């Protein structure tokens, strides 16, 4: 070991190369015993036959559906993306024309929709019980209705899954499968496969469209019927118009685009109206209808008693 260190630290004289040409430059060949540098033209020993290196691993979104790696692709978003998609689902005309194709289709996520659905379920259940408490002020027998959680969960999850699935199936069936390009001299039929949004993209868009009902459900606890209906119209219009703006490039390709537009808006309005009427709207008090039978019974008993007295006399 000492001899090796002395050899490395000692000065050596290197022979001059190319003395015949008159060049006095010395060339030193330094080869490290631990590293070897390969030129770009030489194949790497760590590379496969197809040219892909074996030392580096690339993350693939595929895999078994029973593994966690398969579901990581559905949660590959950050806070800024989620906030931007929530704002786009509430503000009409905020989304560009190709928002569905460039932003949603390239990276559809379930992180935002799942959190929005879960938050909306508990917000509606809690706010619905608050509205029921305000409607029964003074009633000491009032109790919290835990069934509202299951009712709201059934309605919201059904809407968030079945409506996008029905829209996806209808678009697959109704979108024009072929487009004919007729040339002037030659008659050729060129078949162009239309691009329709995937089912995951539609579930993502519909999940974000429910975000507006979280603050609206809190305001529905105000027991003013006109104000509640204004919230229904405002929430359904803003969210429905933003939803339609995002889906319009795909809806235009259908032969029944007008019917699809009407169905999307009616379903969104029906959801908002159903939330308000079932969970928050105060039922009409039917005191006159309840008093009338009692008065009829009292009048009948008085007449019967008077008749019996007259017969006995």
TrEMBL record:
Top-level taxon: Eukaryota
Membrane-protein topology: Multi-pass membrane protein
GO biological process: vesicle-mediated transport
Polar residues biased stretches: 21-59
Domain Yip1: from-to ranges: 104-272
Keywords attached to this entry: Membrane, Transmembrane, Transmembrane helix
GO MF annotation list: small GTPase binding
Family the entry assigns: Belongs to the YIP1 family.
Name of the protein: Protein YIPF
Species annotation: Anopheles arabiensis
Taxonomic lineage from the root: Eukaryota, Metazoa, Ecdysozoa, Arthropoda, Hexapoda
């Amino acid at each position: 070991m000492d001899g090796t260190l002395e050899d490395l630290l000692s000065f050596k004289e290197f022979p001059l190369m190319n003395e015949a040409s008159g060049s006095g430059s010395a060339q030193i060949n330094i080869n490290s015993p631990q590293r070897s540098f390969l030129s770009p033209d030489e194949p790497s020993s760590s590379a496969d036959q197809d040219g892909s290196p074996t030392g580096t691993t690339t993350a693939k979104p595929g895999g078994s559906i029973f593994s966690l790696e398969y579901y990581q692709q559905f949660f590959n978003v950050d806070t800024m993306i989620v906030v931007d998609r929530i704002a786009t689902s509430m503000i009409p005309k905020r989304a560009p024309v190709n928002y569905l194709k460039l932003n949603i289709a390239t990276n559809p996520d379930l992180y935002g929709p799942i959190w929005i659905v879960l938050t909306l379920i508990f917000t509606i259940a809690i706010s619905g019980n608050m509205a029921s408490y305000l409607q029964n002020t003074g009633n000491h027998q009032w109790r919290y209705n835990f069934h509202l959680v299951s009712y709201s969960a059934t309605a919201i999850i059904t809407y968030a899954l079945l409506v996008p699935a029905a829209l996806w199936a209808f678009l697959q069936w109704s979108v024009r499968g072929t487009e004919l390009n007729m040339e002037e001299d030659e008659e050729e039929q060129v078949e162009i496969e239309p691009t329709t949004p995937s089912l995951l993209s539609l579930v993502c868009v519909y999940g974000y469209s429910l975000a507006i009902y979280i603050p609206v459900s809190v305001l529905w606890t105000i027991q003013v019927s006109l104000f509640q209906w204004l919230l229904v119209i405002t929430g359904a219009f803003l969210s429905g118009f933003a939803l339609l703006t995002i889906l319009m490039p795909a809806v235009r390709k259908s032969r029944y685009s007008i019917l699809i537009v009407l169905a999307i808006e009616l379903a969104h309005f029906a959801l908002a109206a159903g939330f308000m009427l079932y969970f928050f709207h105060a039922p009409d008090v039917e005191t006159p209808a309840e008093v009338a039978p009692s008065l009829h019974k009292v009048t009948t008993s008085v007449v019967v008693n008077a008749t019996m007295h007259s017969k006995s006399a």
